[in-house]
Amino acid sequence: MSSVFKAAKGGGVSLRKMLGSERSVVEEWLSEFKSLPETHIPSYAGSLHLKKSLVPALYRVIQDPNNELLEPVCHQLFELYRSSEDRLRRFTLQFLPELVWVYLRITASRDRQSNGCIEALLLGIYNLEIVDKDGNSKLLSFTIPSLSKPSIYHEPSSLGSMALTEGALCQHDLIRVVYSGLHPQRETFTAQNRFEVLCFLMLCYNSAVVYMPLSSYQSVCRMSSRLCVCGFPRQQQKLWREPCNRVLLDPEFMVQMLTGVYHAIYNGEWEMGREALEDILYRAQLELYSQPLLLGNAMKNSLPESAPDAPRGRKVLQVEVTPTISRISISAITTASIRRHRWKREDADGMSGGEDSFNINDPDEGFSSGASNSSQPSGTKLGGSVGPRGGSLNSSTSSIKKAITARLSRDKEREREKEREKERETDKQAELSADLQAATRRHQQRQQSPPASINLDAIQLSPIKKHLSFPAGPTLVRTGSTSSSKSFDCTNFNLNGGDGEEHEEAGGSEREGLLAGGSHRHSTISLQEEHLLRPEEAQALLSPGAPLTKQSRSPSFNMQIISQV
Amino acid sequence: MTARKSGSRLETEIERCRSEAQWDKIPELVRQLSAKLISNDDLGELLLGECKLQTYLKENPIKQGTSPRVQRPKLLEVRKHLTAALDRGNLKPDYIQEASLLMAKLCYVEGEYKDALGHYSKVNLDDMQLAGAPVYRLSMIAESYATKGLCLEKVPAASPSLSNKNAGSPASNRSMTEREQEIITCYEKSGDIALLYLQEAEKALSAGIQNRSPKPGPTAQDQELGYFLETGLQRAHVIHFKNGNLTQGVGRFREILRAIETRTTQNLRMTIARQLAEILLRGMCEQSYWSPLEDPPVVSPLDDPTRQGHTHSKSYSLSRRPRVYSGENLFCPQENTEEALLLLLISESMANRDAVLSRIPEHNNDRIISLQSASVVYDLLTIALGRRGQYEMLSECLERAMKFAFEEFHLWYQLALSLMAAGKSARAVKVLKECIRLKPDDPTIPLLAVKLCIGPLHWLDEGECFAKMVIDMGEKAAEFRAKGYLAIGLVYSLKATDASLRSTQEEYQRKALGAFQRAQSLSPTDHLAAFYLALQLAVSRQIPEALGYVRQALQLQGDDVHSLHLLALLLSAQKHYHDALNIIEMALSEYPENFNLLYTKVKLEAMCRGPEEALLTCKHMLQIWKSFYNLTNPSDSGRGSSLLDRAIADRRQLNAMTLPDFSDPETGSVHATSIAASRVEQALSEVASSLQSSAPKHGPLHPWMTLAQIWLHAAEVYIGMSKPAEATACTQEAANLFPTSHNVLYMRGQIAELRGNIDEAKRWYEEALSINPTHVKTMQRLGLILHQLQRYSLSEKVLRDAVQANSHLLSHDRPKVGTSRRTGTTVKRKVVHINPHVTTFLQRLTEFEPNIKTVYVRAFVSTHRARCCGFYRWWFPAVSCLVI
């Protein structure tokens, strides 16, 4: 509970006067860099961490708002940050938690004047970080991986059951999400932009957190603990009792604090880190902020039981040789065993045992893996046509057709496997006919809407019509129908948006996974639909100047870019 | 079975049994074999030795972390067989190798590590062919590498170091490193070959089933790996991590995961995927990341600094490697969260497959195991997705965890929180109810539910219930008790706003006041408690008391925008308009883009500094609106970019516009006003024309509501300047956005009045009332107009409705209205008389009051800045008193 504050004592609250030796260390550092020729900067950067007494002395300066060295130190730290040398930037960055703490504490105490140079330093770092090398606004984005798309670690077919439920999430393509970006330059702090700036700064810190020294981890824990408890009853339980106003906190900022603390916990600051985690949770509960509560609970729940013992206290991971045998007894009923059971029963029913191909990977999930397979390439194909090149209706038509034919041929290979699904297929047929009725109804409704959408319908419906009039053997029809119904499912669902519920009711339980959550599916197809329905708007959307297509995902922010991987 | 098998057939059968570890069949096959040829005896000895050793190990498995040292008669027999096989030297070279390897394994099992190493030195493991080798031999080679590694770990470093015991010397250090390297290489080779073996075995198995056996038989069940292969697969990375060598550990993890999975490796993959994700989340960051297909950095902060420089690149090659996932367009993560997420999704799918669904007591342990392994994965998923703000996806993932969640508080709570963070409020409240049931003592949970109920959901009765739960906890709720009172106060306050009967309203106001007082006394350092108390006092006209508490709130939290706003409004209620304006300007310096403050500023400016200033503020608001919704382009589905383009174009136009220079003597104030006005007008129309095409039919309404409000404020200022034409234009802009808003209609009525078209005004007011029958200001105006039209009784009715609808409007003047019932004139006089006194404040307070919700949303709900309520709930600031 109190180790944060014990440790903080060493770090010194401003009450303690700076020692003369510390002062001289800082002064020497200040003058040394000024006289440093450009060419010596790399070697200087390499040797900076060797000055053992410098970092504590700098902490002392930062913590004391009345120290006359504060201004030159802030200035110098900014100069280091501006250099092109990563190590120098990281040297400055290690003080960020302390700077943020001092800034927020002074802001809460409404003694703004003495805060000027720290504010300037923070804003300076922020303004440098929001742009890339060419001066363009930085967009930080990442791809949400999808199990329905093969990766270097998996193949969709081997994760059969998952692919079904997962289907709802990642039906078609990988989604690229911007998690931070387009921040404007800031010249001053205001109450309104404060946490936008600080969140971004903490994001920068966290993106380099591995390079930070232990003292910085202590600082991040100290900052988090103090910001969360100061002015609250819990502060009375701490050794650090300096009277202080409550500091307003933003949930996003608390999430960033948690990220830093989480790292500290596993990289040497086990005790302080856990205490900080508790304090953040305490505050998040009082503020009723769901986001930090969510993350904090997850972090707390997954903490290992004991303190680290590894060198330097690192406990990122303790690995032992784990038995490869499932620890779950075979007799237990699991999701997998239910499927296996079903398969066995079908076998016993005399499903032409001899020529069966035995899918060793997942005899239990063969069917579902088929589903994931057949839905996946269409997504990829369509994804291609959303790009600036494939803008025209025709090309998308052909790509859909291509996808369907590709699937047809692939499905033939699986025909034998599909034999086993005969029973299920019968159900499927029933569903399909229900679907078809719905589709026809929808098709009729669509007659009144713009011609483009009718075209799209025609494209999507054609294989189904073919199936209806096709007198060939059952296998062919079946393969044709599964694949086309799949693509039909997806497209229609996206096309209709609001019709989703109706559709969901029509669908069997097998497909519930696919359909649930459909309203927030961000598929290429939904874009496609926009694109087809409103060509003139779509042009604007897809113009080369606008490479990112924005869609909402989370209520707070975020844009979605459909990647064209 | 009994039929004699021809030679080759027999050999195939033996090979198959060895590959499938069916040791029990070997003795019979050996019997058949010896019966055929004398020279087969040696082979028979080998097979019998192998089969006995393997059977022994199967029955007495070696536990991980223990070193076996057994000397049993059973193993003596094995040794006899193997020695016999080797001694005569009649065996084919392949079999001699096999016999030696088995011998080495036997030595290891007996604890004779040096002897084992001696045997390995006779057989050059690296020379053994991997390509074309029968499946069982792959397994044998893999086991041998693992065993060799184990032996090397046991035997102290090679001969020279035996004499050289002072470990500090650099020579011994180097040889230590080399030794370590050799050990790791052994394990890595063993692991690679083991993976290859498993892939081949599975292929053979499925082919075998296809070719021959009518039923899968017992072989379909999971194959056990055994101690040696398990060690070979995992010992390398265990050593890496033990040495603090994360970079190589990560590399090894990735190699194992990239190999195509087999049934036997599924569990291992699930564990490793999760562990790698843990490293990525706990020990790596964006800047230290390297992609799986890239070379790792030479110096990495991940590695133990004392051991740095010991890193080595992969120093061995194998003639055949396990097959890896390949193909076109393989997704390869480029970022640590990406990789962590991919791995966690894979682990999740596996954990889900193992979810134990039955609840019978015998399966309790299994259920706990499956829950634990899933729970870890879900926690990591939460951390990975949460730090990237992907709450929606997270809530979908946690939804899948529900099959584990029976009576599991943590999973339920996490689901509720994720739903809340994702904005799925209604469902979140349902899940929170279950959480309350599972953990009735935690005051946070009902408070979270209240927050949703009075925030986005507006379920006031439910909210009251939840708040009472917290209050009923009494002392147990500790610091949350005050929050409970605060919450119930807000519920009452909102109920008062919703109530139509005056008595009900007053009752709720009273209750709210009591609750806020309680909250404030329980938690005197909470600025929110002080603020809400001040607000409630203001609503009930206790202005001086309200001022006291709002000042207190500001002392506790000087930056709080709502306290500042309330302070300004209270000051304006006391007619300190200039002070109020100063406060607003101060607040605006901290919140330059806060529209609520700006609306109030427009009104105060119109009053203190004249309409020109107010118009400039309107223009400023438009600029802010554009830059604001341009930059943080809200979740504006799909239409964002086109809007963005327009907004950018607009900004250019606005920038090109010069601000009117009031100091210029040439343009006197009157003149300047009109110029300024016309310029503003021009700017307004430009924006308008650009927006007309995209009426806000879908997407979030908040930005559009703000824009409409700005227009209406401008219209109001123009009405104050007696400029009906401009006012009409502004109103029209708002009407383009929300044609059926009662505020727009009300404004039209005002304009008509200004033009002297009483009948038209009446029509507009009536329309406004048909949309919002309780819009007090409209009623008020309508009443006055009716009075002008000399329709006294109707006028009186409308005014009485107005009073009825809004208790606090004229509450302390009610008697006067009552006595003046006879003549409409008196009523009118009273109303007009009251207005200048009260309405300035009232108007702002009403203006403010719907913001209780906003305030609440801000303070309590915080993430939901956009309040998307029903149409009637939209509130546009009213315009009235200035005209009167």
Describe the protein:
The complex is a heterodimer of chains A (565) and B (884). Chain A has 565 residues and is mainly α. In chain A, 59% of the residues lie in helices and 3% in strands. Chain A contains 25 helices and three strands. Chain A has a three-stranded antiparallel sheet with strand order 1-2-3, with no helix packed on it. Mean pLDDT of chain A is 66; it is low at 1-15, 166-170, 350-409 and 442-565. With 884 residues, chain B is mostly helical. Chain B has helices at 7-19, 26-36, 40-59, 73-88, 93-109, 113-122, 135-154, 159-163, 170-211, 226-242, 246-258, 266-282, 336-353, 364-386, 391-400, 409-421, 425-438, 444-457, 460-472, 480-498, 502-522, 527-539, 543-556, 561-573, 577-590, 595-608, 611-631, 640-656, 669-692, 702-720, 724-737, 742-755, 758-771, 776-788, 792-805, 814-819, 824-848, 850-861. Chain B is elongated, with a radius of gyration of 41 Å. In chain B, 51% of the residues are buried. Chains A and B meet through strand 1, helix 9, helix 12, helix 13 and helix 14 of A and helix 9, helix 10, helix 11, helix 12 and helix 13 of B.
Question: What is the structure about, briefly put?
Answer:
The complex is a heterodimer of chains A (565) and B (884). Chain A has helices at residues 3-11, 20-34, 41-47, 54-63, 70-82, 86-93, 96-109, 116-129, 160-167, 194-207, 214-229, 251-266, 270-287, 290-301, 335-348, 366-386, 393-413, 415-419, 422-446, 451-469, 474-496, 500-506, 509-515, 524-533, 535-542, and strands at 139-144, 175-181, 559-562.
